[in-house]
Here is the input.
Amino acid sequence: MLRAACTSWPELHLSAIAIAALLTVPAGARAQIADPPPASTAEAPFASQLEALTRAIDETSRWIASEELPQTSELYAGAAGLVPFWIELAAARKDAAAEERARAIARGLRAGESSGLYTGLAGVAWTRALAGEAELARADVQTLLGRAQTKDAQLSWSASLDVIDGAAGIGFALLALHRELGIEQALRGARGAGETLLDAAEEQEAGLRWRPALGSPREYPNFSHGTAGIAAFLLELGRVCEEERFTQAAERGARYLAAIAQPIGEHGLAVHHSSPGNEKLLYVGWCHGPTGTAPFFARLALLRGAEHWAASEQRLACGLRELAPPQTSAGFWGNVSRCCGHAGVLEFLLARAERAPEASDRALAERVLADLLARATRDEAGMRWKQAEHRARPQELRAQVGLMQGAAGIGLALLRCEAALQGRAIRVRFPDEITALPR
Here is the structure.
């Protein structure tokens, strides 16, 4: 019933001609989307749609290649974040030069002082493993574990608990490195991170919650900094270690999120940005919106077999349709990147389509893709996007090159769209990409 109700969202089938037109607008101009052809012919020019998307990827890669590498090494906005794009491009194009570019960047990364998945060494280690630099990745794991502070069975790297910078993200990276390189110490490290998170959980009437860091006065309940991301890590840790106490903590985190979610539209739900003070602020993106939080419920439904978790995921997806681009809101200010905007939304919709194709997801993906392409700047240097990274400073527009804020992450989303059209397997899966993890 819920799925059927949600799919009543009006569908938008953009033609290949319309999408191609978006790729040929002058720099800075917004395209006028042509009316789609009749339904009987809208699906026919599939190759033209693919060609237009491929051209966008090639122009984006040209701009990324022309830019200087970021000075920092982290995955979020630093040099490590370019590696997943080049690896995926190499797989899509069978391009040895792109793969060597990725490996060269990976070899040149620095450990830095931070240890987080998106902010430091955990992300660097995973990036090196992705690029085929296994020995460097193994050395990074040893350094990472050597940095950890121990308390009984707990391991921690700072007061941070979250996916971006803290124990949950580091734990995700360690699980990935154990899975991909067979590093047993990495699994022990992930378990130690899990013990820290169990100890840091806060009892609530509806379940468990986590703040972004020990002693933090604020709560950010969604994926990047809060309960959704931390519980998602504990869910995966419980699966890998076959320890129910981690899984039960994850499920109690889900109960808390379900209790604080607020209705949006006729059938949707969304979890607020933060508290105190932003209880009515609803974001779109991976960081603080349904794009990041809904996959946790999908994974929970898969592993626990509970219909109510599947229903929660569906309602969060319905909430996303109420919030998603191109309309603006307090929680969507024109950011188009993987963290806060279009690219993350596209990846979420593509992942849902892999599990259970739905017409309304396709319609929304086409709408978001069209708006993303319309916002691009194109010239002889290639294709990039000027955006405001921060909601509180919407006037600060710049073209960025990184993964979570910039062209590398956008290009990766475009490559995933291309892969869906081609029926090609996706090469790059992130440590915290929970719906792509083994069952």
Q: What stands out?
A: The longest strand covers residues 149-151. The beta strands are 149-151, 154-156, 202-203, 208-209, 262-264, 268-270, 377-379, 382-384, 386-388, 397-399. The radius of gyration is 21 Å.
